[in-house]
Amino acid sequence: MATFSRQEFFQQLLQGCLLPTVQQGLDQIWLLLTICFACRLLWRLGLPSYLKHASTVAGGFFSLYHFFQLHMVWVVLLSLLCYLVLFLCRHSSHRGVFLSVTILIYLLMGEMHMVDTVTWHKMRGAPWDLTVSRPLNVELPRSMVEVVTSWNLPMSYWLNNYVFKNALRLGTFSAVLVTYAASALLHGFSFHLAAVLLSLAFITYVEHVLRKRLAQILSACILSKRCLPDCSHRHRLGLGVRALNLLFGALAVFHLAYLGSLFDVDVDDTTEEQGYGMAYTVHKWSELSWASHWVTFGCWIFYRLIG
To answer: Which reaction does it catalyse (predicted)?
Structure first.
């Protein structure tokens, strides 16, 4: 296998990935960006309002034509139809219902091939903009709580609303354990994955209560999650606050590296086919002297001492 120097690696990355990506992206959106910039510039000028609105409408029609050509008529037709419904129902309290039914009928007609399939697929915007994770919160975390809530947003939302909140009557710690146990079951309950998730339960709980106690004592914004703008803490953005948040962030990275050590890409084929069993999990963490678990235990002792 050929080896690359650092300079050759970055050169290949620049020429084979970054530049083509930027070029293809600009090829797709440069005209739209130009129109947006021109409209923004016109609105900054002291022109009459009707000229500003007319220029915006013209820019919108030109953008539609650029992307859809003559098929833009279907988008314009839907807009006019919606305007007509709102105008006719302007004195009715059910105009929202009428508008929804109108749009639904129009969409169903489009799905039944009133428009050719390729064009309709482009206009309806099939790729939904659904945020699944927040990678920056995982790679540069504020806390382990932020990591587990940003890793898989739909799963986190479901577990929080339908498991954690219903289990709170058992107590906070018990609710956390039940939530991570449910997550382990949903992931197939392999031993190494269950070990990671249950370890996360202890780590996130101890981190949460410790930072909450320290935030109360120091009156500082060092909670596991970012404080609201109107929080009652006296110290918000000072050097000490930033240092403590960086310290806990570094501790979260340490926990992530420790827990991620179980997912070894260099493991032999037999182990990979049989799965990561209990022996492999215990052996792997024993090699690391159970460091993360001991650190978590130490944080819990410190929390009890300052309580």
So the answer is: [Wnt protein]-L-serine + (9Z)-hexadecenoyl-CoA = [Wnt protein]-O-(9Z)-hexadecenoyl-L-serine + CoA
